[in-house]
Design brief:
Mean pLDDT: 92
Oligomer: single chain
Strand order of the largest sheet: 2-1-3-4-5
Order of helices and strands: EHEHHEHEEHHH
Largest sheet: 5 strands, parallel
Distance between the termini: 42 Å
Number of strands: 5
Length: 202
Amino acid sequence: GFQPRQRLMEAAPDLRGESNVLFLVAAYDPYDDPARAQEKIDDRIFINETRARCIRLLKDALGPRFTGGFGHSRFAAEQYPDLVVPARSTSQVNYRDTLKAFPICVATTGLHGSTGWKLAEYVAFAKAIVSERLVYEVPGTFAPGRNYIEFTSPEECLNGAVRLIEDGALRQQLMQSNAAYYRDYLRPDALVRNALQTALEQ
């Protein structure tokens, strides 16, 4: 199988790439656990519907400049048949190659308000990011306006994507800021260094 290595999971900013938008994401089955509390069922439904609305708005407004949808699963195929992408699009190798080709990427909040791992992938590949408002604190200098365009609704998601398509200077600034953040905070050696520094300061 595919064995990721650091050199394969990072990239310098591609400042000359076409300003296209990527959003590949999962749909969560709210009912796959009979013991799940209603609050958690509602959370999954809300996440799915927010993601679906973002995908539909981006598809309708951007046309061929947008690639995205739900990864293939039985639940996604039943609930969002028009939004499911081919399974090959989300395989490990193909996803990495696809990600490298898109300068603008969308991130949404995960289960329990978590910051999705896609956000870290986008930073490692120095993307211009449109992200749902973060619930949890992120170390260092990572902030809206500096590393990503923040949104709180699908409509704001679309507006942020269009802004990054139209504003090349802002798009490049976000990409360069994310490359610097990855180097200083997210790269494995930086994570170890910062953890040791924090421990020594205690």
